[in-house]
């Protein structure tokens, strides 16, 4: 009986390890970054997790946007295309820390914000869109 448990554990461990493999982000024909397909808050979390670090890389070595409008205007030059129905709903920049918080929202109001200080999702929700800063 013990001999049957070990192979099952190995198979399970291998299966779990491979379950996380894959390309969550796919390049478009133009080479721009697009977010993974999905819906609701999970999709917006996945998208902001892709978009914010890409913008952080793009901004390094140059001026960071100071306003929401300036941040939105950098998406195309940074090679970023948001999923249909998704928009930048919030952006705040901390010049002292040289860090920003980016919030994306979808047409149904699901949202997620990403803080570049800890490089992670700060918060998310299923309705109401990005909260005011």
Q: What's the short story on this structure?
A:
The protein is an alpha+beta fold.
Description of the structure:
The protein has helices at residues 2-19, 40-59, 68-73; strands at residues 26-27, 33-34, 87-94, 99-105, 111-115, 120-125. It is of the alpha+beta class and 133 residues long. The chain has one domain (32-125): 2-Layer Sandwich (Pantoate--beta-alanine Ligase, Chain: A,domain 2), CATH 3.30.1300. The longest helix has 20 residues, at 40-59. The termini are far apart. Mean pLDDT is 78; it is low at 1-37.
Task: Give the key terms.
single chain; alpha+beta; globular; two-stranded antiparallel sheet; 4-stranded antiparallel beta sheet; 3 helices; Pantoate--beta-alanine Ligase, Chain: A,domain 2
Number of domains: 1
Question: Approximately what portion of the residues adopt beta-strand conformation?
Answer: 15-25%
Radius of gyration computed on alpha carbons:
18 Å
CATH topology: Pantoate--beta-alanine Ligase, Chain: A,domain 2
What is the helix content? 25-40%
How would you sum up the major sheet?
4 strands, antiparallel
Mean pLDDT: 78
| Element pattern in H and E | HEEHHEEEE
Count of helix runs: 3
Q: Structural class of the helix and strand makeup?
A: alpha+beta
Distance between the termini: 59 Å
| Strand order across the largest sheet | 3-4-5-6
